[in-house]
Structures are given as C-alpha cells and as structure tokens.
Design brief:
This protein is of the alpha/beta class. It contains 22 helices and 17 strands. It starts with a strand and ends in a 10-residue tail after the last helix.
C-alpha cells in the first residue's frame, strides 16, 4: 500500500516501489502523455475490409516507429537494451492479437478501435489469472503495444521524450519500455511514475541503464507541475517533492555514501563466491529472455539457475514446436557456456496460452491443472519441449527442472516420458546428452515431506521459496488482507528448507534456492548455516550476496542457524538477523534496521 506523509509544511514524501537503486536530486519534468480515447461505433459489412486495412496499416506504422527507436539506440551504443523493443515488435506480429481483433471486426461489425480494445481486455484477463508476478507484469507490454497502435489508428501524436535543456527527472503516469530506453539518450537522470511494478520491462530497462527510478506512486503526477526540486531514492522507493534544505543536505550525504558503496560492490562481481574459510556457494541467475545473458555474466553469475520458458507459450494461438524450443535453448546454452543453464519446463495452466484446448474452468487455478500436472495430461505438448531441450544439450551444459512436483509418482511419469523422447531422437539419429540432469522444484509441502524419497530419483533440487511460503502458510501474498502473513523467516519455512537440504545431501544430490529469498543478503548467513549448494537470483543482486559471503565464514553461518532454530516466531528471527547484519555490516548498503 502506498503511503504519503508531509515531512514539513512544504515537502511531500511519497512511498512507492524502488525498481532501480540509487539516489538523485534534480528538477521535475512532467511527461504529459494523455490516454487515447475513441468513439466505439458499428460498421456495415461493406466497411469491414477498410477497417481491417486500417488496423494492418496502424500495425505497420507502429512497427516502423519502434524500428526507428531501435536504430537510434543501436547507433548510440546501447544495443544491449534493444531486446525489449524486439519483444514489442513480436507482439505486434502476434497472430492472437491480430486474428482476434479482425475476428471481432467481422463478427461483431464494430470499428477497429473497439475491436482492438476488446481483444486487449480479453488478453489482460488471462494474464491477471497468472500467479507469477514476473509473468503477470507482461500484461503491461501488451498494453503499451496496443496503446501505440490505437494512437496511430486515431491519428494521435505519440510524442517522444523531448530534448531537455538541463538534467531533469521525468515524472509520468506511466512509461513504456521504448520511452525508458530513450531516457539515457536525453538529459534524464531519473524517473518516477504513478503505476508500474518491480518486474515490468520498464523496471528491467531502468536497472540496466542504472537510472534511479520509483514506480507505483499512484498520484505523483498530481503533485508535480514542472520545475520543482524532487529527490528520488530508488533504493528505498521514496520520492520527496519540494524537499527542505535540511532534507536535501541529508540526501546529498546518503547519495555520496551510496555511490561509494556501488563502486565497491561491483568489485565483487568477478570474484569467487567463497567464504573466508573456503566454502563455495554457487551464485546463479534467474532470467526469462536470452538477451539478459550479458547482465548475467557482467554481475558474476556462474550460470543460469532458472530459465523461465513460459513466455514462449503466452499470447499466441499456436504452440511452440520442437524446432522453436531447440533454437531458443541452443542459443541459451551457447551464450552462457561454459557455465550451466537450468531450463524449467512449462509452469502454466493450459487456459493461459492455448485457446483451442478445451479445459474446464477452475475455481482455484493456482492449485489446479498447471505446471507438471498439465504437462502430464498433455504429453505431446510436453514432449515437444523436452525434445527441444535434449537437442540443445549438446551445445552446452543443460539441466531440466520440473515445477510443482508433489510426489515421486509424477517424477517417475516424467522420467518415463523423457526416456520415450530420448528413444525418438535416437531413432531419428539426433544427438543429445543421455545423462542430462533432471531436477525437481521443491515448492509444495508434500514434496518437502517426501523429499527423502524424491532425492533417491532426482539429480538435484531447487527450492522455490515464493510458492513454498504461500502453500506452507496457506496465504496469498497478493491479498492485502493476509499478505502480512507472508513470512520467509517463519520457523516452518526455515525447518522445511533444512529438511530438504539434509535429505538431499544424504542422497548425494545438490540443492539450491531460486525464489526471492535467494536475492536478499539478509538471509545469506542463514543459507550458509543450512549448507545450501546454490542460490539463483536476479543478476543485479549477485554482487551484494557475494560481498556478504566473502566477508563471512561457514562457521559463522552454522552459529547463526543454531540460534535461528531456537526462535519460535518469525518476528524474533527477523529482529535477531537484522541486528546481527547491522553489527557485521554497519557501513553496508543492506537495510538492517526497521
């Protein structure tokens, strides 16, 4: 929930979501981007063809605009950020977006704007039902694409970010990734928006451009007319409008301190993730797009611990075939080599991507036919992905990770299917790694309880703490009424993780964490005590965790864990670990006090 308070009679303090760390002080430059409006109207049968032509012309014009933006940023030396625009260009070519809109024009006899908006609403509804926060944010990409097409349909001006006469902080209701990519071509030192989330592509771009940014402020645009002094704290998610002189002086000191810490932090990227007494904890990265691999390498990851494949299936009518899977995974394996890439198989329900599949509507999709359950029910879809992964396995170190496994029966079914796929490839004379590792995500309480059984038949474990916490504590973290119960340090969670690690090591297999907990340095010493083998996180978090590791010892982690296991509540545990980290890293960037 956003909170806003007045620090003095003048300054306004707003709390949002910090999506790109750093502190910046400057003048506000509002970016007025009025939303497109149109008049829904009926059309005659004779007008259908002209409406379809209008739609296709608007798409082509929109693609041309994005290609122009892409060319500009490449010429300016920012090629690494152009992949976001490639995503939007692919969305404009998406058959579902085109076909559904044209179908509505023809069947409902409505104008193109009306049909396109109805298609957007239909797609957005499907994305809203997705539990994964990262994937849910992809809805914003589609909205930005549709907004651009609508502007070209009605002849509205899609004004680019103007050249500024001095360094400014952009204030907007929202920014598209295309807007954000162009920020560093202008005199923009930061940005803030009313809406947005931490995992949106706009947020990802802002982090890669190292532009301090805060989103989700709800009403920042109502407080800014232009020219005001504002402070943007992208680390804490705080924005201050018209700050007092004392506040400005205070933030100047914080700014200098932060910049010093960031320079020091990046020194850890190329160093080993090793404690002072020689314990190596492998740090890997979670990614969704192959274009993120350069950042994975830049921040010192030792491979990809989680490659999400859901984006290959979303917002399309046709399913990805074996060849499409193979080409994507081959490129992934080659670009991350010599490090390994762990590919998670489809982690969605069939209702989210393939409209031709006739599936019953579910009361609770999060616990219904999704992930491995869906794959086992639709083996042809599953086999196409497995064949693609296997074929790519000879181009690098590739591992397969299975989501939402609840017991050993499912694992055995998958292994049988995998053997069938291997036999198919052998018959076709296609090479693959016959010993490709097959891992299990531990994210359901039944998997924790039977982890000793699973460990005998799996090659490795990866603990998905996001879902494990929700399922173990029976809470929905996006439900504001119970979100306060989402406690990573709940004694049940710590004990669940400990059990999984202990039984995995007894069977001689490695175990890691790929949930949000892995990226928080607050928990690193606890993970050391738990004897985890691997942590996988957003690439930008790796140097922070690496710094804690290199300044600690395994023995210290053991002592921390013994103390943590004595506590009976999450509050006691969190207070203890925050005080301990404040004592151990008093000058560090880690926020150790409430």
């Amino acid at each position: 929930m956003k909170k806003s308070t007045l620090s003095t009679s003048e300054e306004k303090v707003l709390k949002g979501i910090g999506v790109s760390p750093g502190i910046i002080i400057g003048k506000a430059a509002p970016l007025e981007r009025q939303r497109t409006t149109f008049i829904p109207r009926r059309v005659t049968v004779d007008q259908v063809i002209s409406e379809v032509k209008r739609f296709e012309a608007a798409i082509e014009k929109s693609k041309g605009e994005l290609e122009e933006v892409k060319q500009r940023i490449v010429e300016k030396g920012f090629r690494q950020h152009s992949y976001i625009l490639d995503v939007h260009l692919k969305l404009m070519e998406d058959r579902m977006l085109r076909d559904e809109t044209i179908k509505m024009i023809k069947e409902r006899l409505v104008n193109t704007e009306w049909a396109l908006k109805a298609t957007l609403d239909k797609i957005a509804e499907a994305f809203d039902a997705i539990e994964d926060e990262y994937l849910k944010e992809r809805k914003e990409d589609i909205k930005h694409v549709v907004e651009r097409i609508l502007r070209n349909l009605i002849g509205g001006e899609l004004r680019a970010i103007e050249d500024l006469k001095e360094n400014m902080i952009v204030v907007a209701h929202d920014l598209s990734p295309a807007d954000t990519i162009q920020l560093n071509l202008q005199r923009v030192i930061g940005f803030v928006t009313d809406i947005g989330g931490k995992t949106s592509h706009t947020a990802i771009v802002s982090r890669s451009l190292e532009i301090p940014a805060v989103v989700g402020l709800e009403d920042i645009t109502t407080y800014v007319r232009g020219g005001e002094t504002i402070i943007v704290d992208g680390t804490e998610g705080v924005v201050i409008v018209d700050p007092s002189l004392a506040t400005i002086n205070s933030y100047h000191i914080k700014q200098q301190h932060y910049r010093y810490l960031e320079r020091e932090l990046l020194k850890y990227s190329p160093l080993k993730a090793e404690t002072q007494d020689g314990y190596h904890l492998t740090l890997q990265a979670n990614i969704e797009l192959i274009e993120e691999v350069p950042a994975v390498i830049q921040y010192g990851a030792e491979g990809i611990g989680l490659y999400r494949t859901e984006y290959l299936y979303l917002n399309r009518k046709t399913l990805p075939d074996e060849e499409e899977h193979f080409q994507v995974y081959r490129r992934l394996a080659e670009e991350i080599a010599p490090y390994p890439a762990t590919i998670r198989t489809l982690d969605l329900g069939g209702d989210k991507f393939a409209s031709h599949l006739e599936l019953a509507e579910e009361m609770n999709p999060a616990m219904g036919l999704r992930a491995i359950r869906f794959c086992l029910m639709e083996p042809d879809i599953f086999k196409a992905q497995l064949r693609g992964i296997l074929r790519a396995s000879i181009y690098g170190k590739v591992k397969i990770l299975l989501p939402m496994i609840s017991g050993v029966e499912e694992l055995r079914e998958v292994k049988a299917i995998l053997e069938d796929v291997k036999d198919e490839l052998r018959t076709r004379g296609i090479a693959f790694d016959p010993e490709i590792p097959l891992g299990v995500m531990i994210e359901i309480p039944s998997a924790v309880i039977t982890a000793d059984i699973l460990a005998r038949e799996a090659d490795f474990f990866s603990i998905g703490t996001n879902d494990l916490i929700q399922y173990s504590l029976a809470i929905d973290r996006v439900n504001e009424h119970v979100s306060y119960l989402y406690e990573p340090l709940h004694p049940a969670i710590v004990r669940n993780i400990k059990r999984v690690v202990d039984v995995a090591h007894e069977e001689g297999i490695e175990v890691g964490i790929c949930g949000e907990m892995a990226a928080d340095p607050l928990y690193t010493l606890i993970f050391l005590g738990l004897e985890l083998d691997e942590l996988s996180m957003h690439p930008i978090a790796i140097p922070r965790v690496k710094k804690v590791l290199r300044q600690s010892t395994r023995t210290e982690g053991d002592g921390i864990l013994r103390k943590v296991l004595e506590f009976s509540t999450a509050r006691e545990t969190e207070q203890f670990i925050r005080e301990k980290m404040a004592e151990r890293f008093p000058e560090d960037f880690i926020q150790c006090t409430e």
